[in-house]
Every structure is written in structure tokens, then in C-alpha cells.
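Why does residue order matter? Because the sequence determines the fold. Keep that principle in mind as you read this record.
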Amino acid sequence: MAVLVLLLLSMQAHFFRPSVFLSPYVDYYFVLENFSKDSYSEGSQGVTVFPSPQGQMVFTYGEHSDEKWLGSERLLSPDFAVTGYSTKSVEYYPQGALGAIMVGFKPWGIQAFLDFELKHITNTNSGMDLHFGKELVFVEEMLHEATNMAERLRIVEAFLAGKLRRPIIDKAMVHAVELITQSKGVMPVEHLAKECFMGRRNFLRRFEASIGINPKMFSRIVRFQQVFAAMDAQLGKPDWGQISFNTGYYDQAHFINDFKDFSGVTPSQFLESALPTEVGSSFDANVLGENLYEKVYL
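Structure:
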């Protein structure tokens, strides 16, 4: 899979924080727009999204887009989607004018809006109509009729507020996420369970129920995100052995294999071919210093 992404100069990326009511669950809204008549050409490359420790929802008010998950065929992507945790990167290819609101949830946040376990849609953009029914028709109509971004965000927030099913957050699992983040994904499950004052089996059950993925895979994704910061911290030719040590990998071979599993390329290939984009730079600037995210969008 190629990770080189060519974005048009007319692309606009906007970052917003949620209302106070939704902030315990939602981390951000990331809005991409490109209404230029020249915004699409056959064969153009898309937007690459890397695995990150969160679920997402996507609300589209532009033209349709295709998606291509690592190792899979290019298919039509749902305009309104619930995205489970990703263990491999995915590219999105707009088919015309682009308008989409990406709702990035806190690690424990998205499960509060769903009546099914998030683990069932890992590496999947599941159509919202399968889970929320005909109400989405009205949401889509309102988003298309809205005349500005603030109005569209209010529509999305109103929809989310009405779909909150589990307002009680498992604070022990929030603490577990904090421990994983602070350790950069290297704290063993047994230690996490002990720190949360529970047995291993009970901890695993509650973690999956609250977060939507098992703690081992969640930790791997957190650790994968740390690699990008470790790369940026080195000047000149990268010392892969040092990077693998600094990010908690057993050895350099495990580090390279893990990076390739998630991204589709080796770390060396990534550095040789990946070019920063306005989308990725905009997102990175807004989450600077937040340990969960180092590189979500290329």
C-alpha cells in the first residue's frame, strides 16, 4: 500500500472541541472540506488514516468516497459510518466535492452511544443506518441544507446527544487507559489489572466492554503511535535499534514487523515515501502534547 498522499491545495481542515455535555465522551471534531470543481480526478490518491486508540463516526455532506483498507479491495465507503478500532491503515478517495465531519471519541467514549460491542466492527466502517435507523435520513438532509460549519456541528452534536445510551463511565477503565498511555503501551495486562484492584479475567471483561477492544491490542496501537514521535525526535539517519528500545519493543525485528502490520510499509519505506500533508499537519498541530495521538492522518 502506498502511503504517499497527494492533497489538493484547496483542501481545508478544521479542528473543534465538543460541547461540555459531550466532552466526557467526544475528544474532537475534525472537518475536511474541498468544494472545488477540480477537487477530484480519476486515479488520484486519497487521505491515509493510521490506527489510533479510538473509535470514530463519520458524517458526510459532500460526494461519496471510496475506502481501501490495507490488504483489501477499494470499495464504496458509507457516507455515515461508525468506525471501530483500526489495526491497519486505510485510504479514502473522494469521488467529488469533499465535506465530512470526523467525530473522534475518547477511548471509552464511543461505546456509550452504541447498543452493540465495538469489537464486532474492528477494521470496519459500519453504516450508521444499520444501528440508528431512518433518523439518519433527516440528519443527512439537515447537513446538506446547512449553510455553514457551525450549523453542521450543532446538527451532529444534537444527534449524538440524543443517542447517548450509557452515560455512566467506568472510571476504573479510564484509569487503565491513563496507565497504558503513561507507560506508552508497555504495561503488562497483569499489572494493569492489579493497579485497578481486580483479577485478570474481570479486568479483561470490563476493558473490552468499556473500550471495545482488548487491552493488549489497545496497548499495541498506543505504542505504534509513539513510534512517530520517536522518529521525529531523531536527527539525520534514524537509529532503528534505539527507536525500538525507546518505544518498548522487545527488539528491532519486532518493532519493524509491528510497524508494517499497522501501516503496510517498513519504517524506512515510510520515511522515504511519506510526505506531510495539510490535513495531517493541521491535525497534529491541534493535538500536540496529547500522548494518544502522534500521527493519525498522514
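The first helix runs from residue 129 to 132.
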